[in-house]
Amino acid sequence: MSEKAPLLVPASPARVQSGHVHRCSKRQAIGRLLAIAATTLFVLYGIPQVGYEPIADDRESDLCLTPACVHAASEILYNLSPQYKELDPCDDFEELVCGGWRDRHDLRADQGDAFTGTIMSENSQMLLRHILEAPYPKDSQHSHFSPMRLKAVEKSADEENFDKMKAAYDACLNEDKIKSIGAEPLVHVLDRIQKAYTASASHSHSVKDVVLLLAKYGVAGLVSTGTGADDTDPDSVVVSVGAPWSFGLPSKERYEDEKLVERYRNVTVQVLSALYPDQDVHAFEGIIELEKKLAAASPSQEEREDVTKYYNPMLIDEAAAIAPELELKALLNGQAPRGTKIERVIVMAPEYLKELSIILAATPRDVLQSYFIWKAVQSAYKYVDADAVKPYRQFENVLAGKDPDSAPERWRACVRHVDSGLGWILSRFFVEKAFSAEAKKFGDTIITDIKTEFSKKLNAAEWMDKETTKKAVQKVHNIVQKIGYPTKSPDIMDPPTLEDYYETVNVSSDAFFANAMAMQRFAVKEEWSALGKPVDRDQWGMTVPTVNAYYNPPGNEIVFPAGIMQFPVFDVNVPAYMSYGAFGSVAGHELSHAFDSTGRHYDQNGNYTDWWSNSTVEAFKEKVQCFVDQYSNFTVPGPDDKPLHVNGRLTLGENIADAGGLSASFQAWKRRSAETPNQDLPGLDHFTQAQMFFVSYSNWWCGKTRKDTAINRIYTDPHAPKWARILGTMANSREFRESFQCKVKEPTCQLW
């Protein structure tokens, strides 16, 4: 049921700064680096007037002049500020490392923000586009590292999978067909919702049937329901029910902005009036008042992230009694597979359910009906091209600071569509092109090294008592590391298995809306099919092309899809400090989640239990308050341009993980490089190898954001803004301060 937030979320914010000038072209820079390679001469820099003096490594290291190293050096040089030699890294390392990135990366009209991970993701999308727009690869076209260990009969299954994936992609690309159909398929779904509500309400004033219908399409009408591992019994699947993650606006706090709410109300009325011109607009106007009440009753984002708040196990009858109008027992049984019996449920927001009963009793029936229709529109509007839904599309863009009529390139949207609906088939073809056995081996080495170093940190933590430390070290040893791609549940290397997995997803090359609905229904059914079975610990929560990673507390596992194991974060062909600095810190970050403000509640077997001694818990709380205070001082401009503070409590787990992950990875690299010395990169002799480790880490977080996106993220994102993740983490790193000879060596906050 519980899964820790991943390392990052799509379009997480980063600070915008004005660009610098006097930049040479990338072609000139590469030419300069190639000249260095040809003459084996070092570029000599003068001693900077501000900051630190470059210091020589204790050992001599030669220069790496391979194309991979020249490429990596060029990328770093172009991301650095043009004045990087004059800037003091101890003062603003983010500007030093990322000033050049901002020079050469402008946000497109359709982007709320972007960072290095966005570029990586879009590079992967380009690769996937080439796969999807090319014919099925025959035997001779498979790469050296290929999952194709297939018999003749199996090749047809692989090709059929490819054809299904391509049909979904082609249907999405056919904008003329989508436009010619207009809103018709959406209205058909809305009519079903209207009829379901009318039929149930006329008999018993029930909302159960319409909430159930929405849930089968993956839409949270009044409550969010689902299944997952039981936190206190992680091998058992349990049902959960709680407040929807969103009611319309990005967060409950945005409903306090009266101007925004009024704009939202006008758009809602405009869209629904276009879809239902004969209906009274008063019911449409009441939708937003209902949303406001629901949002006010819902838990804060901070409470949603806190296992001590959301884990409330109850017997099904006890849970149903909280909100009788929902008919919760019937609602949940309506989603469960036949033959399963739900006896226990995790009520993630009891107070919300209590308030929900009061709110429903006070809401007119026509407003409720309109609300359910509106939820379906918000979920499915992106699958139609019609004037009726255009105002909402524009509103969503403006809400994120984008141009009103902007949209990503169609092929990008369609790659994402295929990834969301047929992701494991897409993953199979991505792996063949973008991953290798060598990459998997290197990734395993990095993570194993970090486990070793983190265990040392636990043993050295004087504030932990011996018994807690012993159990914590055992938890590190027990952490399962999943790297690259799944070979079970499903085995993406086995085409017949994939064919069976997606057998019920009916896809047509000319029915985009129907395809999307089939994919959504399949995802919901797949989640609920786990009920009555042991937890499948072989499942992955992210598809392989995803540029992200996560820690799962009940599973005590860290997961790294092949998508994040790409240049410039990960590369087997460049000096190891680059991969340890970026990917290694990601790996250490996820491992650190096992001991952050949430992960610490789960023992070495993934059980939610109090396994820390009272003295250790008190010492932990005292130490992490430093992180809360530190990050609460970071701000972004608010809606009225007044400073809007980062929520240090909401972002606590991620900030702890950033600090712990960076330190563990640095120590892992130092130990590994003592055994196997690294080479230097050309043109970067201004930095020592230790300093390059921190440059590589920070390079990963270089980015830009729009004001409105940054505001939304403050309320919803458990991660601090990207620029704060550089500045805060460097301030908390003794290794950084020593490597750059900062005057103050003591970290601002330190846990491990």
Radius of gyration, in Å, reads 26 Å
Could you say how many structural domains there are in total? 2
Q: What's the CATH H-level superfamily name of the largest domain? A: Collagenase (Catalytic Domain)
Mean pLDDT: 91
Major sheet: order of its strands?
2-3-5-4
Short key terms for the protein model shown above:
globular; four-stranded mixed sheet; Neutral endopeptidase, domain 2; Collagenase (Catalytic Domain); three-stranded mixed sheet; 752 residues; 2 domains; 7% strand; alpha+beta
Give a written overview of the molecule.
This protein is an alpha+beta fold and 752 residues long. It folds into two domains: 1-138 and 435-478 and 565-752, Collagenase (Catalytic Domain) (3-Layer(aba) Sandwich), CATH 3.40.390; 183-381, Neutral endopeptidase, domain 2 (Orthogonal Bundle), CATH 1.10.1380.10. The chain is 52% helix and 7% strand. It has 30 helices and eleven strands. The chain has a four-stranded mixed sheet. Helix 9 packs antiparallel against helix 17 and helix 20 (437-460) packs antiparallel against helix 21. The model is unreliable at 7-60 and 150-154 (pLDDT under 50).
